[in-house]
Amino acid sequence: MIESLLIANRGEIARRIIRTAKRLGIRTIAVHSEADADLPFVAEADEAVCIGPANPAQSYRNTEAILAAAKSTGAQAIHPGYGFLSENADFARTVEVNGLIWVGPGAEAITAMGDKINARNLMAAAGVPVAPGTKDPAATVEAALEAAAEIGFPVMVKAAAGGGGMGMAVAADEAGLRSEYEKVRAFAERMFGDGSVLIERYFPRVRHVEVQILGHADGRVIALSERECSVQRRNQKLVEEAPSPAVSPELRERLLAAAVKAGEAVNYRNAGTVECLLDPATGEFFFLEMNTRLQVEHPITEIIHGIDLVEEQLKIASGEETNIHMGQAGHAIELRINAEDPKRFLPGPGKVATWEEPDGEGVRVDSGYAEGTTVTPFYDSLMAKLIVTGADRDEAIARARTAVADFRIAGPKNNLPFFAELLENEEFLSGDYDTGIVSRMR
């Protein structure tokens, strides 16, 4: 097993990784920006190194500073968490070139799945269903229009190198496509350094369902189970639940088989997620993308399977055998507690004057902050993840209501009032909802 681990991340995911590493007897090293010096993850690590100012480009995305910290502290391995450098193939490759263990998939798999068009083509060749769309980048707006005419409006305009719900727009007609194409292309060039654009069929009513996979050192790829991720704002997730209320045993079998094919197609190792769009009217599902890292919402899969996915990641990276329990029990829901207003979801950073976490049976909180700390504007607005579990969905929802009411945060704006509203919403309670539910509530 790895003996010393540097966590190249911050906040709640850094604390989450530190917790498992300490339980396994692994020495932990935190890296942090100047802005994060007082956060809990820094104090909880065995050692901490400041790697630069608040700007992520000068700290959490600064590969030279991170590698220097690893060298100076004698770290044996690097866990990237999610976001920042977690899906950067060059960084993964550099880590290994420097003689360190990368806790994640190989650089080749990251590269293969990092470009949406390349990923679509690979999946189609592997027999994984993909939505109608372009096989090559739409290099001009005329090419985009030609593709849309073949696919049929409305279409989704996507940055091929995008991720996390960024660089996406819907075009309902030719005029809309002309406008959105240029916006997405410019955004993609600015954010990802790659202006390639993909045109794909847009499904007005669709569910977002994903499958957790683990690729082992001996080549085996297993699929654990699915997560429902359809409660979204601006194509970014707010709530996840497992299992999905939309997935029958027969559909689950097809989803998991497709996810295994996806992993095998790129010789996948370590934890990853195969994201799909599910048409609730037909039961058809289509490959959306593969996230080559640990997901924010991994705790709900952990709970229903009784496993620790970070531990499994570390075992795989160490070349050790995993011990996965394939059965599942109960129902789990995760609510992302963000520093944002609950109506328009605009960021609302600030100093935390009150921070009181709920507890009780079936309640887990993975948090990055505490009373007296500050949510700064430099990073993602996620403050904590409230995870609840019950024997069934109804019990999980009931516990979620109580936990939301008992969670006390003052200082930064927060979206707890939105969750209180959602947990009484008839559409959500029915389980028959889709990615448009938040817009309908607003």
Question: In terms of topology, how is this protein built?
Answer:
Elements: E1 4-7, H1 11-23, E2 27-33, H2 40-44, E3 47-52, H3 63-73, E4 77-79, H4 89-97, E5 101-102, H5 107-114, H6 116-126, H7 141-151, E6 155-159, E7 168-171, H8 174-192, E8 197-201, E9 207-215, E10 221-233, E11 236-242, H9 249-265, E12 270-278, E13 285-291, H10 298-305, H11 309-318, E14 331-338, E15 350-351, E16 354-356, E17 363-367, E18 374-375, E19 382-390, H12 393-406, E20 408-410, H13 416-422, H14 426-430, H15 437-441
Parallel strand pairs: 1-2, 1-4, 2-3, 4-5
Antiparallel strand pairs: 6-7, 6-8, 9-10, 9-12, 10-11, 11-14, 12-13, 14-19, 15-18, 16-20, 17-19
Helix pairs in contact: 4-5, 7-8
Domain ATP-grasp: 120-318
InterPro entries: ATP-grasp (IPR011761), BC-like_N (IPR005481), Biotin_carboxylase_complex (IPR050856), Biotin_carboxylation_dom (IPR011764), Biotin_COase_C (IPR005482), CPAse_ATP-bd (IPR005479), PreATP-grasp_dom_sf (IPR016185), Rudment_hybrid_motif (IPR011054)
Domain Biotin carboxylation: 1-442
Structure write-up:
By secondary structure, this protein is α+β, with helices and mostly antiparallel strands. Helices cover 35% and strands 26% of the residues. The strands form 5 sheets. The chain has an 8-stranded antiparallel beta sheet, sandwiched between helices. Strands 3-2-1-4-5 form a 5-stranded parallel beta sheet. The protein has a 3-stranded antiparallel beta sheet with strand order 7-6-8. A hairpin with a 5-residue loop joins β9 (207-215) and β10 (221-233). The longest helix is centred in the middle third of the chain and has 19 residues, at 174-192. The mean pLDDT is 96.
